[in-house]
Amino acid sequence: MLPLTDVLSTLDLTESGDGMFVAEQRDNPSHHIVGGHIAAQALMAASRTVPGRLPHSLHVYLLRAGDARYSVQMEVSTLRDGGSLSTRRVIGRQGEEVLLEALVSFSVPMDAADYQQPRPEVPDPETLPPVEEQLQAFADEAGGFWVRPQWIERRYIDPPPRSAVDLPEPPERTRMWWRPAEPVTDDPIVNSCLLTYFSGTSLLDSTLTMRRGTHVTTFSALIDLAIWFHRPADLTDWVLSDQVSPSGINGRGLASATLYNRAGQLVCSTTQEMYFGRRRG
């Protein structure tokens, strides 16, 4: 995981032409571009071409892993600008290789019916220990991977994947409170991008729990991601993510989540599919 300052800096894309943006990456030992990260950058690129409207849905296909040592070129095409909806296509490239294709839809506020399913009854985040305390028994594993600081704080209601793998039966759901580890802007576009990054990485918890694997022992790659943004998120406070993995087949794992703010309002809904091709040595 990148620190929050690096995440935010990589969302500050450089415009290189009409509808063209440069998305800088941050290298890591495997040189692998994180799917949730590049999806967030695609959302930011599209948003830069639609002033005055907020994203309400994002659909991304991750086609190649890419190389985190090099930047990604984001090409945004205008498909539609209607009275209330705008649609953009984003293609992310490194050289001649297409890494990502995305469709992003934007909307304006409307006076219409407002309803949602209620937020689950769960303990408040202040009553739960940080994940670093929950996984302290595994602090010596994998070079301290489980207790390493990340750009988000997490407080699990259900056992996190490293604990769940040792249980007789995997828990049906993975619920957690989370928020950025440092103060963030109230810009709704930036916060939608952070939600995208979070969703693209956190839902892996649910599929790993059902597969009885961990982040350290299991190879995985995000292959597609869909998010519906219902209302702007306030990331100065905790957000509840209620996650479930209903299916795993042919080396793929499907996961879905609903995210709520502290007041119980539905912030976004998301579904993604992960690819598990091989086990790490």
From TrEMBL:
GO terms for molecular function: fatty acyl-CoA hydrolase activity. Residues 32-106 form the Acyl-CoA thioesterase-like N-terminal HotDog domain. Residues 174-273 form the Acyl-CoA thioesterase 2 C-terminal domain. It comes from the Bacteria. Keywords: Hydrolase. Belongs to the C/M/P thioester hydrolase family. This is Acyl-CoA thioesterase domain-containing protein. GO terms for biological process: acyl-CoA metabolic process; fatty acid catabolic process.
